[in-house]
Design brief:
This protein has 3 domains: 4-95, no CATH class; 125-367, Type I PLP-dependent aspartate aminotransferase-like (Major domain) (Aspartate Aminotransferase, domain 2, 3-Layer(aba) Sandwich); 370-469, Aspartate Aminotransferase, domain 1. The chain has 15 helices and 22 strands. The chain has helices spanning 67-77, 110-113, 122-132, 145-156, 169-187, 210-214, 219-222, 240-244, 271-284, 335-338, 354-367, 370-391, 416-424, 448-461, 463-469; strands at 14-17, 24-27, 34-37, 46-49, 52-55, 89-93, 96-99, 104-107, 162-166, 197-201, 232-235, 252-257, 260-261, 267-268, 287-291, 315-318, 329-333, 397-403, 406-411, 427-428, 430-432, 437-440. The strands form 6 sheets. Strands 9-17-16-15-12-10-11 form a 7-stranded mixed sheet, sandwiched between helices. α3 (122-132) runs antiparallel to α11, α4 (145-156) runs parallel beside α11 and α12 (370-391) packs parallel to α14.
Length: 470
C-alpha cells in the first residue's frame, strides 16, 4: 500500500472527481482550500486534500448545503447546549475562515484561543499527517516517544519537573484538584483530617466538569447541577486582605487562580497579588495552582503568563493552544507534588496520544522561539494602541485591557449586537465577562495589517450599540 504522503505535491493541491452535472471548483487564490459551488450544484462526489481521501461526497460533510440547511439539521441531532453564531464554517487558512457560501471572515477568536498558529499551518499539518501514518493511539498502558518528547520540552521550558497529560482544560483542573488533595494527605500522614478545601476567585472559570465547575465562580454555571464538590470558597480577585483571612493551614489544600482571567472578562492579576498568594500558600502549607488554560503558551507574549510577574506556582494547568486544535491538556507539577502521586491515583485512556503530542511538539517549538514571543508582544501593544485610538472616545467603551494578544473591550451595554454586526462585515469576535466584554484572542500569527482591518470593522460596527441602547 503506497504511503499517503507520496502523493503530496503542494499544500494547497486538491483533486476533484465529479459526477455528471455535479461540478465544483476550488479557489486557491490566497484564500486557502475553499470549495465554491456553481449555481444549482449540490455536491461533488470525491474530494482529496494533501493526498489524503477526505469524504465520499462533499454533501456528507455539509459542503453544497446552505447555512440554513446545516443549522436546521443541527437542531434535529445535537443536544442544545450551544447558542451558536449563525455561521457554518468549512475551511480556513492562516487567520481567515470561510463558510459554506464562500464568505470570508477574519478570525479574531482562534477557536477560543486555541488555533495559535492559525488554520492549516504547514508544519502542524505535516506533524499530524506524518504521525498518523506511523501511530495514532496506543493508550497509556505503553510508552510512546512523542509523549515523552513533549513532556521533556514542557519541563525544560517551565518551573515544572513532571507532566501529566489530559484531553482538555477542565480535565487538567480536575487532575490538579486530585493532586492537591493527595499531596496534603501524603504530606500530613498523621493528620486525622488533612486539608481538603480550595480558594478560587470572582470572575474565574476553571471548567464544566463537577470538580472544575465547583471552582468556577459564575452561579448560573453551577446552580443547575448542584450539589457540586463542597469545600470551595470564592473571594474577590486581587483582594489581598480578604484572601489573607481565608487561607488556613490544615484547611486549605490549594489556591486556584488565573494570572489573566479569560472567560471572566480579561482581568489581569497584579504582581503584588500573586506574590502574596505565593508567600501565603507557603506559610499555610497550601499549593498554588495557576490555571493558564487560556492565557498560557505565548498568548501574553511570554511563554507562560506567570513569567510576566516573576511568580511561580506548584501546579500549572494548560490546554487550549497546545496542540493547535487537537484536544489536549496538561498538568505541570514540581517534584514535591509529583512525589505524592502513585500508580493508579489517576489515569486517562486517550490523553497524550502519539498523534496529538506530535502536533503539540510542532506548536510548542514554534511558539517558544524568542522572536515569535517578541512579535506577539509587539502586535499586542499595537492592537491595544490602535483600539484606544479608534474606540477610546466611544461613550460605550469603559476600558480596553489585556496583555499580548488577549484583549478585552469592556462596554456599558451587552456586546451581542456588536458581535452580530461584526460577523455581517466579515469579522469574528467573542464575548467574555457578563456578556459586556468583547474578547479578542486572534491567532498569534496575525499581521498588523489584519489587526488594522479588524479594528476598522469594529469601529464601523459600533453604531449598532446606539440603536440597541435606546
Amino acid at each position: 500500500m503506497p504511503n499517503a504522503m507520496s502523493s503530496i505535491q503542494s499544500p494547497l493541491q486538491m483533486s476533484i472527481s465529479e459526477s455528471t452535472n455535479l461540478r465544483c471548483r476550488i479557489s486557491l487564490e490566497g484564500r486557502g482550500n475553499v470549495i465554491k459551488f456553481n449555481n444549482g450544484v449540490k455536491r461533488a462526489t470525491t474530494v482529496s486534500c494533501l493526498g489524503v481521501h477526505v469524504a465520499d461526497s462533499c454533501e456528507s460533510v455539509g459542503v453544497g448545503k446552505s447555512s440554513k440547511e446545516v443549522m436546521e439539521a443541527e437542531k434535529k441531532v445535537l443536544v442544545g447546549t450551544y447558542a451558536r453564531m449563525p455561521a457554518v464554517l468549512v475551511s480556513g487558512k492562516g487567520c481567515k475562515l470561510y463558510d459554506v457560501e464562500g464568505r470570508e471572515y477574519l478570525d479574531m477568536t482562534s477557536g477560543i484561543a486555541v488555533n495559535a498558529l492559525g488554520h492549516g499551518d504547514d508544519d502542524w499539518v505535516k506533524a499530524v499527517v506524518d504521525q498518523a501514518n506511523l501511530l495514532t493511539h496506543v493508550s497509556n498502558v505503553y510508552y510512546s516517544i512523542p509523549q515523552i518528547e513533549l513532556a521533556k520540552r514542557l519541563v525544560a521550558s517551565s518551573f515544572a519537573d513532571r507532566v501529566f497529560f489530559t484531553n482538555s482544560g477542565t480535565e487538567a483542573n480536575e487532575a490538579a484538584i486530585k493532586f492537591a488533595r493527595k499531596f496534603q494527605r501524603h504530606s500530613n500522614p498523621d493528620a486525622k483530617e488533612p486539608a481538603t478545601e480550595f480558594i478560587a476567585f470572582s470572575n474565574c472559570f476553571h471548567g464544566r466538569t463537577m470538580g472544575a465547575l465547583a471552582l468556577t465562580s459564575k452561579e448560573h454555571y453551577r446552580s443547575p447541577f448542584e450539589p457540586v464538590m463542597p469545600g470551595v470558597t470564592f473571594v474577590e480577585y486581587g483582594n489581598i486582605e480578604a484572601t489573607k483571612k481565608l487561607i488556613r493551614r490544615g484547611k486549605t489544600a490549594a489556591v486556584f487562580v488565573e494570572p489573566i482571567q479569560g472567560e471572566g472578562g480579561i482581568y489581569s492579576a497584579t504582581k503584588e497579588f500573586l506574590q502574596f498568594l505565593r508567600s501565603t500558600c507557603d506559610d499555610a502549607g497550601a499549593l498554588l495552582v495557576f490555571d493558564e488554560v487560556q492565557c498560557g503558551l505565548g498568548r501574553t507574549g511570554y511563554l507562560w503568563a506567570h513569567k510576566f510577574y516573576g511568580v511561580f506556582p506548584d501546579i500549572m494547568t494548560l490546554a487550549k493552544p497546545l496542540a493547535g486544535g487537537l484536544p489536549i491538556g496538561a498538568v505541570l507539577v514540581t517534584e514535591r507534588v509529583a512525589s505524592a502521586i502513585n500508580y493508579g491515583d489517576h489515569g486517562t485512556t486517550f490523553a497524550g496520544s502519539p498523534l496529538v503530542c506530535n502536533a503539540a511538539i510542532a506548536v510548542l517549538d514554534k511558539i517558544s522561539k524568542p522572536g515569535f514571543l517578541a512579535s506577539v508582544s509587539m502586535k499586542g501593544q499595537y492592537l491595544k494602541e490602535t483600539l484606544k485610538q479608534k474606540l477610546g472616545g466611544n461613550p460605550h467603551v469603559k476600558e480596553i485591557r489585556g496583555l499580548g494578544l488577549i484583549i478585552g473591550i469592556e462596554l456599558d451595554v451587552p456586546a451581542s449586537p456588536l458581535l452580530d454586526a461584526c460577523q455581517e462585515s466579515g469579522l469574528l469576535v467573542l464575548t467574555a465577562g457578563k456578556g459586556n466584554v468583547v474578547r479578542l484572542v486572534p491567532p498569534l500569527i496575525i499581521t498588523e495589517q489584519e489587526l488594522d482591518h479588524a479594528v476598522e470593522i469594529l469601529h464601523k460596527s459600533f453604531p449598532v450599540l446606539d440603536s440597541n441602547s435606546n
